[in-house]
Every structure is written in C-alpha cells, then in structure tokens.
C-alpha cells in the first residue's frame, strides 16, 4: 500500500473511533440533558428536539471541545445557546404559554388532583412562569450540577448576576409552591364537570 | 453564625432536587429510547463517506500527496458542513410547521368540538400528524372556560402524548394552562 493510502486509512480509523467514543460519552449524559431541555422548553417533545439539535451541533463542533474539560458543561452550553437562538428566531415561548396560577384550575370532574404528581406538575408550571434568564441559570445549577462560577462561565455573565438570578428563581418557586391551597379546601368546590 | 446560611442552602438544595424529580416525572424512558435512536441515526448519517485512496507511484511525493489529501478533506468537510446546516434548518422548519398545524387543530377542537370528538392534522412534508380530543369542560375560578384535552403528536421518532388543560381567552384563543401528563412512546 502506498504511504498516502496508509495515512488516509489511519486518519479515518482514528477519527471514527474517537467520534464514536465522544458520542458514547455524550449519550451517557442524555437523561440529564433531556431534563434540562424539558425544563427549558416546557415540553417533552420540544425538549427532545433541542437535545437532538444539541447533539448535532456538538458533533459538528467536536474539535472545539477540549478533552479533560467537562464534557457535560460544554453540552449544556450548546443546548442553552441553541435554546436562546431558537427563542429569538421564533419570537415566542414554546410551550410555557405564560400560565395562570395552576391552582386556579383546581378540580377536574369533581376530583381534586392530589398527589406527588400534581405537586410535580405545579413545580413544572411554576418553573415555566420564571423569566427565561432565571430559569436557565437555575436549571444549569439544579439539573446541570454546575457551581455558580461554572454557571457564570457558561452564560458568560458575572457571578454576582448569576447568583442573584438563581436566588430570585428559587424564592419565586418556593413562593409559588407555598401559595398552593390545601387539597379539598371548600374554595375548590365551585369547579364544574 | 453559619447555621442559618447552611440551612437555607440545604433547603435550596432540596428544592433543586425536587425540581430534578419533577422534570424526571414528566418524561419517560420510551421517549428516551426514541431520542437515542434518533441521535444514533443522525450519527450514522453524518459519517463521512470513505475517502478514496489513489495510488501514488513515488514515495518521495508523499508529502505533496498528504497536502492534496488535506485539501480534499477540507473540501469534503466544507461540503458536509453545508449539508448539516441545511439539515438543521430543515429540522427546525419542519417542526415550526408541525407546531403551527398542531396549534390550529388545538384551537379548532377546543373552540368548536364536543368533548370526545377528535380533530386531526398532518404534515406530509415531515411525516408528522396528530390528534386533539377535548375530554371535558369546566369553569375556572376566574370565570374562564377551560377544557381538559388529550393531544397525540406522531412523528417518525415516536409519539408524544400530552394531557393538559387550556382556557379560553377573551379573544377566542385557547391557551394551555396546565400539563397533566406528557409522555413519549
């Protein structure tokens, strides 16, 4: 075999296996990225589309990732940039649709929704009512397991700004959860089937 | 003096954990499998076609050959790059059209169909389709009419089943107010 042929084959083999390895490492982070994207977009299907776009962009820009640095941080950064661009290009929120207080819709068919799942649904709805910039910062910490400093790096913001956004986000979430009325309280009785 | 701060940090950490659980609760594993399959398919597709290795007669020209190869690779890379851009754009455009069709169908179903009656939509361009069925109607405390509905969104990658509640705005638009469940399969 000519030298050129050999060089070409070696380069291709190394490229392919390195690419495969990178993809496998990325796929290991899929569940966390899904939760992050779901939290950002407010919809499972929009979130999964965002994750797919994130993978596509990451594989395309894989040379920009420095081995040894946190792969997950790099992916979260790509995901949040894609989300921001998407929002800007569409000029509207995807699924969050500026919801009213969830407890205003308090009973369905006479049954009051009471269980963890309702609490989780309330929490997701409350998350959806946060301003985008607060939600992104909080999710990078809560789902992405990033420190405030790492989050500031990803968002390219001063750490003080990030900390105050996260703190406001958490207080708002706590407040929205706490103002949920007790299940079965008389005021819920007016909903009609 | 550090105790109150610590307690607050711990409380916030608990809230973060609950948020993580809440998001996990809204997703399911079959959706994850479908997404994994989509990503694998995308990866298989984006792999560059094998480069053809032309035979060079003289070893001393190896350096020039490598240079040529690099130029070819660059050209191929740029071409692939363009294709990828186009694919991402097509993906986003298709989804935008699907979403618009779905939103029109939701509004029609909630505005003018009885509970139990289904409205369908489809987009042959992306292969996506969906159904929206109002389930029941009731009145929220603020006087708005609200309807619980189910929405199926069938895409080549899988089906997204959502159950939610939307309320009618004064201008006749229905806005989704609550997601009761959202699963993929």
Automatic annotation (TrEMBL), chain A:
GO terms for molecular function: DNA binding; sigma factor activity. Keywords: Sigma factor, Transcription, Transcription regulation. Coiled coil: none annotated. Residues 122-173 form the RNA polymerase sigma factor 70 region 4 type domain. GO terms for biological process: DNA-templated transcription initiation. Residues 29-92 form the RNA polymerase sigma-70 region domain. Pfam families: Sigma70_r2 (PF04542), Sigma70_r4_2 (PF08281). Belongs to the sigma-70 factor family. ECF subfamily. NCBIfam families: sigma70-ECF. This is ECF RNA polymerase sigma factor SigR. It comes from Oceanibacterium hippocampi.
UniProtKB/TrEMBL annotation, chain B:
The chain crosses the membrane at residues 59-80. Residues 92-174 form the Surface antigen domain. Keywords: Membrane, Transmembrane, Transmembrane helix. This is Surface antigen domain-containing protein. It comes from Oceanibacterium hippocampi.
């Amino acid at each position: 075999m000519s030298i050129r042929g050999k060089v070409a084959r070696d380069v291709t083999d190394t490229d392919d296996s390195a690419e495969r390895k990178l993809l496998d490492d990325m796929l290991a982070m899929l569940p966390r990225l899904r939760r992050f994207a779901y939290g950002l977009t407010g919809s499972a299907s929009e979130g999964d589309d965002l994750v797919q776009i994130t993978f596509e962009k990451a594989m395309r820009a894989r040379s920009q990732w420095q081995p040894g640095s946190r792969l997950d941080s790099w992916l979260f950064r790509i995901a949040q940039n894609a989300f921001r661009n998407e929002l800007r290009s569409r000029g509207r929120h995807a699924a969050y649709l500026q919801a009213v207080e969830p407890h205003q819709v308090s009973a369905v068919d006479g049954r009051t929704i009471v269980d963890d799942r309702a609490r989780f649904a309330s929490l997701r709805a409350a998350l959806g009512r946060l301003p985008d910039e607060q939600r992104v910062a909080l999710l990078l910490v809560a789902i992405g397991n990033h420190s405030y400093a790492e989050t500031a790096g990803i968002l390219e913001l001063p750490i003080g700004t990030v900390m105050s956004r996260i703190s406001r986000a958490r207080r708002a979430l706590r407040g929205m959860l706490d103002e949920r009325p007790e299940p079965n309280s008389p005021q819920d009785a007016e909903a009609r089937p | 003096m550090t105790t109150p701060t610590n307690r607050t940090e711990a409380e916030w950490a608990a809230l973060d954990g609950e948020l993580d659980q809440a998001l996990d609760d809204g997703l399911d594993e079959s959706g994850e499998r479908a997404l994994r399959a989509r990503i694998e398919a995308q990866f298989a597709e984006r792999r560059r076609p094998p480069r053809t290795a032309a035979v060079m007669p003289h070893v001393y020209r190896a350096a020039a050959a490598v240079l040529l190869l690099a130029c070819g690779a660059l050209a191929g890379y740029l071409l692939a790059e363009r294709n990828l851009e186009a694919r991402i754009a097509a993906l986003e455009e298709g989804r935008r059209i699907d979403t618009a069709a779905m939103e029109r169908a939701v509004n029609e179903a909630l505005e003018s169909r009885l509970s139990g009656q289904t409205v369908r939509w489809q987009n042959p361009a992306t292969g996506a389709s969906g159904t929206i069925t109002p389930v029941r109607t009731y009145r929220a405390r603020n006087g708005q009419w609200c309807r619980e509905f189910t929405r199926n969104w069938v895409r080549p990658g899988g089906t997204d089943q959502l159950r939610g509640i939307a309320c009618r705005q004064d201008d006749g638009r229905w806005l989704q107010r609550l997601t009761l469940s959202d699963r993929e399969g």
